[in-house]
Amino acid sequence: MNVRLESLETKVDQRLRETRPVWENVLAQLTKLKKEVVSFALRPRVGFAESIARLAFSAKNMVDMTAEIQEWRDLIEKPESQPA
Fold first, then answer.
1. Angle 46-52-53 (CA atoms, 0-180°, nearest 5)?
2. What is the rounded CA–CA span in Å between residue 46 and residue 43?
3. Cα atoms in the 13 Å half-sphere on the side-chain side of 46
4. What is the mean pLDDT of the chain?
5. Dist. CA 27–CA 68, nearest whole Å
């Protein structure tokens, strides 16, 4: 009975040694995959925030240009309204 138990323990130890590198590799791949998923999940938010910032910048530029156009119109129209 002891011989059979020792034989079984030897086989279990051998299998553990064989499968340990496999499990370590699987765990490493899962860790890497988790990091990639988190990174991917954060990308749209960053991209969305950048898009909003660019849109706000463009809107400000448009407001500034509209104000500048109005100033030019005022300058152009003033001489026309004044008698020569």
1. 90
2. 5
3. 6
4. 83
5. 61
Structure tokens of 5? 């138990």
Measure the CA–CA gap between 26 and 21, rounded to whole angstroms. Answer: 9
Mean pLDDT to the nearest integer, 26-40:
86
The secondary structure of the chain as a DSSP string is -HHHHHHHHHHHHHHHHHHHHHHHHHHHHHHHHHHHHHHHHHHHHHHHHHHHHHHHHHHHHHHHHHHHHHHHHHHHHHHHHS--
Side chain identity at residue 40, one-letter code: F
**pTM, 2 dp:** 0.41
> Identity (one letter) of the amino acid at 23?
W
